[in-house]
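Subject: Sanity check before I submit

Could someone independently write out the structure tokens for this chain? I want to compare against mine line by line before I put it in a report. The sequence has 464 residues.
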Amino acid sequence: MGKDYLQKAIETVPDRRQLAWSENDFCAMIFFGMNTFTGRECGTGFEEPDLFKPSALNTDQWVKTVKVAGMKGLILACKHYDGFCLWPTEQTDHSVKSSEWLNGEGDVVKSVADSCRKFGIPFGIYLPLWDMHEPSYGTGKAYDTFFLNQLRELLTNYGDVFCVWLDGSCGRGKNEPQQSYDLEAYYALIRELQPNAVIADVGPDVRWCGNYMGVCRESEWSVVPAYYNIIKRAEMNYTGAVNYALPDLGERKRIKNCDEFVWYPCAVNVSLRGGRFYKKEEDFAVKPLSKVMKLYEASAGANASLILGLSPQPDGTLNEKDAEALLTIGAVLSLHFEDNLALDSSMSGNCKKDDLHAPSMALPDHKGFWHSGTETKNPELILDMGDEYDVDRVLLRENIATGQQIEKFSLYIEQNGKWKRMAKGTVIGSKRLIEFDYHRRTRRVKLVIEQMRGFATIKSFEVY
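---
Independent answer below. Compare away.
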């Protein structure tokens, strides 16, 4: 096979949906449902609908808080494994229409979708494949029809949807029914009704990171062997074991025996609290700011998307501790990225593909990108801010529209006329955040690409 595998990896690029998704590096996933009122993480499917009775549902508060926190999208769990639906579905009576809340006229999905439009936050839906309440679960085609009908309701009645998160759950016990899902039919309907939406988790567009710790891999490649993608795996008749939790999915040692690749970016999900759903005893388990910022750096800052789980309390509002935490997160993110020192700076380098891809195109106020060409072994860029400033973080972005090629890099600052290495890393991808342990005073910052697949690109070189 030689190096053909590497050329195929180089040529693997995202589609338009995945490109749009790369901008949503920090989103909320809201869990509010029957479990909120029973205090469980996973229900039984036999809860009485009248248990669901929020007294002060305020989805405007949810969405405003999400926006102020710096999040770029909101995904609502429209139901959980227990099957209780937050919208008045026509497919089952196990929904808000059978509760006393608002005399059965309530619709949480509509309220959230309307609030998202009101405050300019993209709206997405989470829908588990498993439904503990639905009697057709495990019967095959009848359940697929039920699931498709619910999908159709959610994708036609609530406006544009930017993400459909399909939770790949299933009956777990020996005596529980098992369902073989018609995923191709699910995907086809989503593509038909919401062609701009990515399909995540059990989907062909965005993959789950493989853990619940809120971090991705040190080298989180978006270009991975095709068998990681559920559609491609079926097409290839691949029968090998697929382990999403492996410490490496895309480095050369992992892909050298592969002959087909896909663009399959990573999403990391973790709850702001201990569990998905609100529990009063967890009011003091809200993650501290320092923890959330470390999670942000290790996910949104490492070529992945951070999906932070939020848990409204039974009255239908975010607890004040959760809201305060989110407002603080937003304030810190704004402070960290408020003053981009690379603006009004100059950029030089030791190579370029052509004048349209010169080093200056890596400056954040340019619309193009720097392309190293293929001739230089260690391409480098030098940012000159014109004067000395205190610097504590650098943000790098590859031009992922042309793929992901950077495999190893080092970052230097100039002090007393000498270059001092401050950080080294592997992949950059859509976003790589490098934070220094404390402020460093410098005028010039240098990026050296030490290993790449054919060529290197930088769309934005930012310093804060």
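---
OP: Matches mine. For the report I'm noting this point. The two ends are 44 Å apart (CA to CA).
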